[in-house]
Amino acid sequence: MTQFAETTGTAVETETAYELTALDRCDACGAQAYIRVQVANGELLFCAHHGRKHQEKLSQIAHSWHDESARLLADTAR
Ligand SMILES: [Zn+2]
Q1: Which chain residues have CB less than 5 Å from ligand 1, an ion?
Q2: What is a single Pfam family found in this protein's UniProt entry (predicted)?
Q3: pTM of the full predicted structure?
């Protein structure tokens, strides 16, 4: 039973890889957000540029780091 639950959890995580939309905006500059960082008192949104800029500092306090910046390549190709 435990094995089954673990397998299912992994599958769900992979399928919900893209959670950010055009309505999610970078907290630093207002551009579309591609990175979501969960911290103790809430969550922060960053564009790819500011996500990388603050990554070193934030990774020390972040509970989870959700990065969709790979989508930038796909969006630009259109
Ligand atoms: Zn930004």
Answers
A1: 26, 28-29, 31, 47, 50
A2: DUF7455
A3: 0.71
